[in-house]
Amino acid sequence: MKVLCIGDVCGDNGCKHLRRVLPKFKREYGVDFVIVNGENSFDGKGITPETAQSIFDSGADVITTGNHAFGRYESYDYYDSCESLIRPANYPKGTPGRGYTVVDMLRYKVCVINLLGTMYLEPLGDPFQLIDEILEQTKDCKIRILDFHAEATSEKRAMGFYLDGKVSAVFGTHTHIPTADETVLPNGTGYITDVGMTGVEDSVLGVKKEKAIEKFKTRMPVRFDSADGECKMDCVLFEIQDKTGLTVKTERFTVR
């Protein structure tokens, strides 16, 4: 089984680029399942039912999110009604939506889990404790994949090694910068610290660079407008054995 995991889609330009390149990529590489982080798919931040639908129409099977999961109030009810859109599991009880989803692929089930790191981000529930609980609840799924939306590379690396051999793959999101450490860990878990982003390349994390510079120089509130220009799609492809649920190959791509 080939699972493609795509970095944070940024704004309308990111959504349009995803639609342009994802269908062809899926055909060329024989992709069976697609996970897309869509927490910034609305211009500014957050996700709406409209941007989520655009991502699904492009070929995503599951959309994950992160610390901007609830940046748009329009998404709140949609989290409850759409099982293929998930938010970090370590939000408190009563939060709209779910932290993981299970997709029945007939020959096997695929469990996609979303967790938020706690270093330099909101102090939510302990992701290491929560992942143990989720793995216990999803023992019937051989293929389990985690989107760990976190700031600190150390926290992501620690999670990868903690889950080595317990899940099929762990991919990091949030920083929008792809890391060059894609690998298969010693016990068979595919891993990358951060996949990157899908959006305008000549930008600061998808934002107009002038706006980002202004923020750093003045320390004053600045409206982060989405950048325009040529786009890229950062992604990682995990080749997973159906019988064992373990990864045999991890490959990183940037699609322009």
Commentary on this structure:
It is built from 6 helices and 13 strands. It is of the alpha/beta class and 256 residues long. It has a single domain, classed as Purple Acid Phosphatase, chain A, domain 2. Strands 1, 2, 3, 4, 11, 12 and 13 form a 7-stranded mixed sheet that branches. Strands 5-6-7-8-10-9 form a 6-stranded mixed sheet, with helices on one face. It is globular and about 50 Å long. It starts with a strand and ends with a strand.
Percent helix:
25-40%
The low-confidence runs, each spanning 5 or more residues with pLDDT under 50, are none
| CATH secondary-structure class | Alpha Beta
- From the alpha carbons, calculate the radius of gyration and give it in angstroms: 17 Å
Mean pLDDT: 96
Instruction: Give the CATH topology.
Output: Purple Acid Phosphatase, chain A, domain 2
- Share in β-strands: 25-35%
Main sheet specs: 7 strands, mixed
Overall number of strands: 13
Number of helices: 6
- What kind of assembly state do the chains in view correspond to? single chain
What's the SSE blueprint?
Elements lengths: L1 E5 L1 E2 L1 H19 L3 E5 L11 H10 L3 E3 L11 H6 L18 E5 L4 E8 L10 H11 L5 E7 L3 H11 L5 E5 L9 E2 L5 E3 L4 E4 L8 H10 L12 E10 L6 E9 L1
Parallel strand pairs: 1-3, 2-11, 3-4, 6-7, 7-8, 8-10
Antiparallel strand pairs: 1-12, 5-6, 9-10, 11-12, 12-13
Helix pairs in contact: 1-2
